[in-house]
Write a structure and sequence with these properties.
single chain, mainly alpha, elongated
Length: 64
């Protein structure tokens, strides 16, 4: 394996990581709050996905 990745491949990997991190967060939101697997969500805690966007940004920055 080469020591240095081509620049385009590096940016492609970073972009795919960003997409997959946020896709995982969105799918987990759908499973928990829309499908309500395992148990029902208390209506007081039922928030739209837009509330979690700052968490998505923070999670993406931390995981990158």
């Amino acid at each position: 394996m080469p020591r240095h990745l081509p620049r385009w491949l590096l940016w492609t990997l970073v972009a795919s990581d960003v997409v997959l991190i946020n896709l995982a967060l969105y799918v987990s939101y759908i499973i928990r709050y829309v499908w309500q697997w395992f148990r029902a969500v208390d209506p007081a805690n039922d928030n739209p996905f837009s509330v979690y966007l700052p968490v998505a940004v923070l999670l993406t920055a931390l995981l990158l």
